[in-house]
Amino acid sequence: MNEILVQRPRRWDQPFDEDMQEQQVLHVLASPHFRNMQPANFPKALQLEDLIRNDCRIRRFDKHQLMVRAGEYLNSAFLILSGKAIMVSPPGIDPGLWGQVSVNKISLGKSIKRWWSRHRLPEVRTSVSALKSNTGRRASDKGRVIIDNVEELIAGASCESETLHSGDFYGESAVLGRNEITNTVIALEPIEVLEIRWQGLREIRKREAGFRDLIDDLYRQRGLSDHLLSVPLFQHLSPHLIKELSKEALFEVHGEFEWQRGFKTISEQANSEADYNKLIESEPLIACEGDSPDGLLLIRNGFGRVSRNINFGHYTLSYLSKGGMFGLDELHAAWLEGKPKPLNCSFRALGYVDAIRIPTQWLEKNIFESESNEALKGVLEESLGSSITMPPEQKTTPVQRELTEFLVENRFINGSAAMVIDLQRCIRCDDCVQACANAHDNNPRFNRHGKSFGRYMIANACMHCEDPVCMIGCPTGAIHRAPGGEVKINDPTCIGCSTCANNCPYDNIRMVEVRDESNQLFKDATHKPILKATKCDLCSEVSGKPACERACPHDALTRLDLKDIAKLSNWVDR
Question: What span, in angstroms and rounded, lies between the C-alpha atoms of 538 and 284?
Fold first, then answer.
């Protein structure tokens, strides 16, 4: 086969902003957080000036212009260079005032036209060099939203807010936690902001201790406050009590942030009941069955296993993810009875858990003693996990328990849009595979095989994880969160380094060779093929369901959030 020799794509072939000139770089270097940084802390290949030139851009907003909205997934953090803004905490202002984050969908006619005009060869590219791309751009980049009466709206909504000035950061918690931002930020006057892609933020944070401490402290402080305001149990509290609780609460991290590194090796070891118990016991223990609870645990990020000892083995009852809590029932019962109440279950980190611990005394004084706290009644009624007091076999059916254990052991609970296939309904016609190939450069973005539970298989297709560890280490930001939360790859800025594919714990990212329209492979000077990362994008640009799901003639395939066990069970029992 013929080949085209080209230069292998590099990290900064496409800078974040082509208009970032030398004068702007010097302007940033003179700002408070950068002026004292030591160039010697940075290697020659990653000089501070180069990081600012290629991983940053300067943005300007008008008075009362929306800068970032709650619910967006961010790929950047922001530093105010001049001007003033207001950061509004949950529940915030009515989002209808500025509209929801929109995802551009192409029409049916354009979809058909694109299908007919597609190349007949697989993975055709006109070039492997970085082209003009929108990596890291947000929906709000595309239009100005002005909120003239912002001060009155905030006062009327009775929500907490913080004024941001020159030198203040925002968005750092969402970027570091790989989740959506919980605050809305609006300019109070004409403002100039430095936007730092998370790749640049990571490099600077790694090499400058003072900068790292600043970002980490903001992450802890704002993370506590933001999460507390999102928890139904505390939403009725006054801003004064929320501030008090933020000071009393403890920030905890259990397990490894980059948990995917050892996951594949560990999961392969659970081949027997004894190995299964060893696997659970190897997970970081956060709270132990039989001990008295030391405060209420709120799960901010990550996943945890709730289990109980049954016949000298560990029985998985459920798992907790972002927004969950552990120990409330026992703490409330102890307060009612006036004596300690031991935990019914144990709680362990499944790889990584970012948690907040609420001290028992504060909880008793401000929540349990508040007779008007209807939120407490509702939370207690819906509470799972440690609230299970009857024998587990009476609380959870064997099928449900086994299904939960299967999802927990394989970390499929991380998936918000996993491909589930009913193997008894599936006739192996491959219509789903062909439909996916037709929609994606004549090469399917998934493999129709994977791990099975009974007659159901979780296929090797990107699950668009709640915690997308594939994004860790991507040098260009090619793999990123779209406005709707989908994890996508921007092909022009992918340099084929395979970092995302190696990080994916589920083998759902594939590296493919690319060619031109005459079927010549792109290769570098050493004649090695140029690779690109590919994965399922949920056909997010097309209206309706993904092509694979629409093409299945026997309703054997669906996309599900595997944290929603009830919905999965309903589909299984349909």
Answer: 34
Are residues 123 and 533 in contact, defined by beta-carbon separation less than 8 angstroms? no
**SS3 at position 449:** strand
The secondary structure element, H or E, covering residue 499 is helix 499-503
Share of the chain above pLDDT 90, in %: 44
- CA 469 vs. chain centroid, Å, equals 8
421 half-sphere exposure, CB direction, 13 A CA radius:
26
Beta strands in 334-427 (DSSP E): 346-358, 418-422
Segment 406-440, tens digit of pLDDT: 888 888 999 999 999 999 999 999 999 999 999 89
Q: E strands within 311-438?
A: 313-320, 325-326, 346-358, 418-422
Domains along the sequence of the chain with CATH: 31-98+145-240 (2.60.120.10), 259-396 (2.60.120.10), 404-572 (no CATH)
- Rounded distance between C-alpha atoms, residue 445 and residue 437, angstroms: 7
- Measured distance CA(506)–CA(379) in Å, rounded: 34
CB 462 within 8 A of CB 503: no
Kind of pairing, strands 531-534 and 346-358? Answer: unpaired
Structure-block tokens of residue 214: 């600043």
Measure the CA–CA gap between 210 and 33, rounded to whole angstroms. 9
